[in-house]
Amino acid sequence: MNLRQLEIFYAVMKCGTISGAAKQLHVSQPNVTRVLAHTEQQQGFALFERVKGRLIPTREAHLLLPEAEKIYQQLGQFRNLTNKIKAGEKHLTIGAPPILSATLLAPVIAQICKNSDYTIEVSTGNQDELCDALLKHQLDLAICFGNDAPNALVQKTLVTAEMTVILPHNHEAPETVSLNELLSNQSGLIALDNRDPLGLQLHQAIHTLAPDYHPQVTVRNYSAAAELVAQGLGSAVVDPWTATQYQHRVNSARLDPAIDISVSLLYAEHYPMSIAAKWFVGQLEQGL
């Protein structure tokens, strides 16, 4: 299996569809289908079963996946290195959730690019996606919510804050709202997915007060929660940056008891930050 075949096999395994793999790799669907068929013919066994229009990985494909991931990780590291060399070590790849990319990173990146010849790539995603990209050397560093770093990643707290209550404009906006009030409110609370760092903190706080509480709507994206509040569906508890971004469309209040949150810098322990990355972090810290 050559690198191109490996790349397509890995993309199909991760995306689950030919169309998803083609979109990820920026190639046509027939191209993916053709390479996949040639790979199966060359290997002498099927990698996917076609069941009712869906691709189901075979046992053989699952056996190959761990080794494919190792090679793909090495390939990502190699690509990252060539990008850095090409840009004269003044190229940075940075990841962050959309809200932190728009609020914390954007002003710093704008200032750097106006006053230097650095080139910067920004990728957005949830914490799991960003941590995975760091381990595969697809990112130099990431800015995430929470202060827990997975194994092999180094964590440094950049800023601490409190989660903020947001309410529809047609609701009175008191200075402080208790979590009990939010849970007993007829309009309900739009919850955050507990796979998310802030969602997990909120879930734990809710469970302490009301173990049997089940929200009608749960989202993983903070902006999606704010958008639903703006539409009048209910209230939500989000990070203060999202609350500020939606300040003209929702009311906000402090939460009682407060839920403290943090924003952290993450990078791979076995892939220390470059001089350029350290300099960027210094610029970011000055701007906070």
UniProtKB/TrEMBL annotation:
Coiled coil: none annotated. SUPFAM superfamilies: Periplasmic binding protein-like II, Winged helix' DNA-binding domain. Keywords: DNA-binding, Transcription, Transcription regulation. Residues 1-58 form the HTH lysR-type domain. One of its GO terms (molecular function) is DNA-binding transcription factor activity. This is LysR-family transcriptional regulator. Belongs to the LysR transcriptional regulatory family. GO terms for biological process: lysine biosynthetic process via diaminopimelate; positive regulation of gene expression. InterPro entries: LysR_HTH_N (IPR000847), LysR_subst-bd (IPR005119), WH-like_DNA-bd_sf (IPR036388), WH_DNA-bd_sf (IPR036390). PROSITE patterns: HTH_LYSR. Signal peptide: none annotated.
